[in-house]
Amino acid sequence: MRRPLLLALWCAVLFVAAYVGFVHVPALRDADLRVLEGFMGLWSLPGAQFGDDLVLAFDPAPFAAMVLGVVAVAHLLGRTRAGLLAAGAMLAANVSTQILKPLLAIQRDFPLDHFMGPEAYPSGHTTAVMSFALALVIIAPPRWRALVATFAGLLTVLTTFSIMMLGWHYPSDIVGGLLVATFWACLVVIPLRAEVRAPSLRASARAGAVLVGGAALLALTRPAAAVDYALANTTWLLGAVAIAVAALVLSGSVPAPTAARPRPRRDLPHG
């Protein structure tokens, strides 16, 4: 069980490093703002208005239903223990985020005509979607896990991008939420029989390919405007790629538990 514990420790270290860097290093603080402004400038894209509905799906009430749903689905799949632990990770991650927000509150710069409160790091909605995505991977049977992990990675990236397009959180807040959720997911798989082999990132790669393909199709609708926007917002472009990669890698980094081994069948003695 050393691998999930080591991953959890790395998440904790990176969480602290991200906060210190983006709060106290001027260059990183400026990049944080530039990436946020780049995302907010995309709100006029076709279909962007649906991002609001996607983010609101991870408000407290719907999220509570998701926690119960994870337990129910895991029970139906015969993975009740994994479901309870995954649901526990979802709750622990989101409670941790709400505790950390006021402790780490600090007022940062924000775009003109826009305001964001000081209690922002880490992002609560990001924590919610990432913890839900990881819970799905934890409870998924091995034969479905690659497909579930691909869906989970796409859901996480689309939701976090929507959060930034709405201007609700800085990219650094997004990173913090991803790390909090992954930290707790790593801890809860320790009591389970984790797979010996390293977690596969093939599902993350597939999700990345889908995202690249979708972005390319969107850019082809207005190629000149897409190129101009990318060249005028290079910091945003690099930040968007970095956040997407981080979300996809983390979504595939937690060693998922194997299915319980079937008990040997005992034939009844013939009468």
What structural keywords apply?
271 residues, mainly alpha, 11 helices, 0% strand, globular
Notes on the protein architecture:
The protein is built from 11 helices and no strands. By secondary structure, it is mainly alpha-helical. It has one domain (2-251). The radius of gyration is 20 Å and the shape is globular. Residues 259-271 have low confidence and may be disordered.
Question: What is the compact description of this entry?
Answer:
The protein is mainly α.
Structural class: mainly alpha
Helical content (DSSP H or I, runs of 4+)? 55-70%
Instruction: Give the quaternary arrangement of the chains.
Output: single chain
Rounded to an integer in angstroms, the radius of gyration calculated over CA atoms is 20 Å
How far from one another are the termini? 47 Å
Mean pLDDT figure: 86
Number of helices: 11
Number of domains: 1
Shape: globular
Strand tally: 0
Largest sheet, in brief, is: none
Series of secondary-structure elements, N-terminal to C-terminal:
HHHHHHHHHHH
Domain Phosphatidic acid phosphatase type 2/haloperoxidase: 82-189
Transmembrane segments: 55-77, 84-100, 120-139, 146-168, 174-192, 204-224, 236-256
Keywords: Membrane, Transmembrane, Transmembrane helix
InterPro entries: PAP2/HPO (IPR000326), PAP2/HPO_sf (IPR036938)
